[in-house]
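Dear H.,

Thanks for agreeing to be a second pair of eyes. The structure we're designing against is below in C-alpha cell form, covering all 331 positions.
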C-alpha cells in the first residue's frame, strides 16, 4: 500500500530521521521541509517541500517564527493536519469511464516497457487530473477547526458552521460538481490553498474588490455565477458577520445606532403602518395606502378561508363521530 502512495518512492528513513539503530531510540517527529532525496526532473534538483513550508507560514494559517510565534499558534493547521499519504486512485470523473486508466497505461507500456516505471509515472500524473479531496472531504476538513466556536473566538473569528445551512452545502452533499466547497471560494483558480489570506487583505479572493470575479468563477471547471454583477457579490456568505449581533442588540436597547440599523428602523415603521388597526390613513402617501389596502384584503380573505375550512372540518368530524357511536349501539 505504501508503494502505491504518493510518497511510495521515498525511503522510510528519508522522512523519519535518526532511524540508524534498532530499536530506534532517538526518532524525530517528521518535518515535511527536509530534503526528500529524490530529484525533480524538470530542473534536476534535490526535491523538498520547503517552499510550501514558507508559503504556508506566510499565510493566515502560519505559526509565526520560532522566536516570535503567533498567539495560539497550536491552533494552526500543519501539513499533516490537511494531508494524508494518499494512495493513487484510478482516474475517473470528467465524464471518463472507469477503466480508462488501464487502457491508457497499455499505450505507455508499448514504449516504456518497464511496466512498474510506466505505472508509477502514469499515476503520478493522472492523480493530479482530479482534486485529491472530494468537496465533502474538504468541507469536513476545514470545518474540523472552523466550526469550533471557542477556537475561532481565540482568533476573533466567527465560526463558519452555518455553511451547512446553505444551498452550497446541499449541492456538495448531493454531489453537484458545481457546488462550491471552502476551496472554491477561498482558493479559486489563481490563488493557492497554501497562502490563504484574511478577508480584509486585498489579495484574498473574498476581499470586497475581488468578490465579483470569485462569484463569476471565470476559467474554472466549476460553473458558478457567470453573470454575477457587483451588487450580487455583496450578499453575505457566512451570515454571522462580526458585529452584526452587537448592532441588533444596540438597536433593541435603544442605544445610539451603528451603521445599517437605519434599514431595520425603516422596516419597523413600515410594518407598523401597514399592519396595525387604528392607523390614520390620511397620514399615508398613495403607495402606502394602496399597499395597506392589499394587505387588509389578503388578511380578510385568509381569515374567512381559515374559518370556513377549520369550521367545516370540525362539523364534519362531529357528524362522523355521532354516526360511529350510533352504529356501534345498533350492532
Ligand atoms: C513522506 C514522508 C514519510 C515517509 C516516506 C514515511 N513516513 Fe511514516 N510518518 C510520516 C509522518 C508525517 C507521520 C506522522 C507522525 C509524525 O508527524 O511524526 C508518520 C508516522 C509513522 C509511524 C507512526 C509513528 C508514531 O509516532 O505514531 C510509523 C510507525 C511510521 N510512520 C512508519 C513508517 C515506515 C515503516 C515507512 C516506510 C515504509 C514510513 N513511515 C515512511 C511520514 C513519512
Ligand atoms: C511513442 C512512445 C511513447 C509513449 C506511448 C509514451 N512515452 Fe513517455 N517518453 C517517450 C520518450 C522517447 C521519452 C524521452 C524523450 C522525451 O522526453 O520526450 C519519454 C519521456 C517520458 C517521461 C520523462 C522521463 C524523464 O525522466 O525525463 C515520462 C515521465 C514519461 N515519458 C511518461 C509517459 C507516460 C505516463 C506515458 C503514457 C501516458 C508515456 N510516457 C507514453 C516515449 C513514449
Ligand atoms: C489548510 C489545509 C492545508 C495545509 C495546512 C497544507 N495543505 Fe497542502 N493542500 C491542501 C489542499 C486543500 C490542497 C489542494 C488539493 C486539490 O486541489 O486537490 C493541497 C495541495 C497540496 C499539494 C499538491 C497536491 C498534489 O499532490 O497534487 C502538495 C504537494 C501539498 N499540498 C503539500 C503541502 C505541504 C508540504 C504542507 C505543509 C507545509 C501543506 N501542503 C499544508 C491543504 C493544505
Ligand atoms: C460561496 C463562497 C464561499 C464558500 C463556499 C465558503 N466561504 Fe468562507 N467566506 C466567503 C466570503 C465571501 C467571505 C467574506 C465574508 C462574508 O461575506 O461572509 C468569507 C469569509 C470566511 C472567513 C472569515 C469570517 C469572518 O467573517 O471574518 C472564514 C474563516 C471562512 N470564510 C472560512 C470558510 C470555510 C471553513 C468554508 C467551508 C466550510 C467556507 N469559508 C466556505 C465565501 C465562501
Ligand atoms: C487545524 C485547524 C484549522 C484547519 C484544519 C483549517 N483552519 Fe483555517 N484557520 C484556523 C485558524 C486558527 C485561523 C485564524 C488564524 C489567525 O487569525 O491568525 C484560520 C483562519 C482562516 C482564514 C482567514 C479568515 C479571516 O478572514 O481572517 C481562512 C479564509 C481559512 N482559515 C480558511 C480555511 C480553509 C479553506 C480550510 C480548509 C482547507 C481551513 N481554513 C482549515 C484553523 C484551521
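And this is the sequence the design step returned. I haven't edited it by hand at all.
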Amino acid at each position: 500500500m505504501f508503494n502505491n502512495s504518493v510518497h511510495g518512492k521515498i525511503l522510510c528513513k528519508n522522512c523519519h530521521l535518526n532511524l540508524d539503530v534498532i530499536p530506534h531510540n532517538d526518532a524525530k517527529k517528521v518535518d515535511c521541509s527536509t530534503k526528500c532525496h529524490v530529484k525533480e526532473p524538470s530542473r534536476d534538483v534535490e526535491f523538498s517541500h520547503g517552499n510550501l513550508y514558507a508559503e504556508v507560514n506566510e499565510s493566515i494559517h502560519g505559526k509565526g517564527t520560532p522566536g516570535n510565534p503567533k498567539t495560539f499558534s497550536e491552533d494552526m493547521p500543519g501539513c499533516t493536519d490537511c494531508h494524508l499519504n494518499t494512495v493513487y486512485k484510478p482516474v475517473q470523473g470528467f465524464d471518463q469511464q472507469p477503466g480508462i486508466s488501464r487502457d491508457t497505461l497499455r499505450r505507455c507500456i508499448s514504449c516504456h516497457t518497464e511496466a512498474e516505471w510506466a505505472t508509477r509515472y502514469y499515476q503520478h500524473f493522472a492523480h493530479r487530473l482530479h482534486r485529491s479531496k472530494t468537496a465533502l472531504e474538504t468541507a469536513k476538513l476545514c470545518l474540523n477547526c472552523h466550526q469550533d466556536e471557542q477556537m475561532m473566538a481565540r482568533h476573533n473569528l466567527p465560526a463558519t458552521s452555518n455553511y451547512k445551512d446553505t444551498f452550497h452545502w446541499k449541492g456538495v452533499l448531493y454531489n453537484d460538481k458545481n457546488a462550491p466547497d471552502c476551496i472554491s471560494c477561498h482558493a479559486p483558480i489563481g490563488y493557492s490553498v497554501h497562502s490563504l489570506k484574511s478577508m480584509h487583505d486585498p489579495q484574498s479572493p473574498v476581499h470586497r474588490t475581488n468578490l465579483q470575479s470569485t462569484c463569476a468563477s471565470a476559467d474554472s471547471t466549476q460553473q458558478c455565477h457567470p453573470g454575477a454583477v457587483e451588487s450580487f457579490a455583496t450578499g453575505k456568505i457566512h451570515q454571522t458577520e462580526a458585529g452584526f449581533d452587537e448592532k441588533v442588540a444596540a438597536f433593541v436597547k435603544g442605544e445610539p445606532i451603528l451603521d445599517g440599523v437605519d434599514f431595520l428602523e425603516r422596516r419597523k415603521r413600515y410594518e407598523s403602518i401597514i399592519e396595525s388597526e387604528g392607523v390614520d390613513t390620511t397620514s399615508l402617501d398613495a403607495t402606502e395606502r394602496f399597499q395597506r389596502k392589499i394587505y387588509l384584503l389578503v388578511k380578510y380573505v385568509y381569515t374567512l378561508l381559515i374559518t370556513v375550512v377549520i369550521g367545516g372540518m370540525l362539523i364534519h368530524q362531529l357528524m362522523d363521530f355521532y354516526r360511529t357511536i350510533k352504529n356501534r349501539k345498533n350492532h
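Two observations from my side: The CA atoms of residues 87 and 234 lie 41 Å apart. The mean pLDDT is 85.

Warmly,
E.
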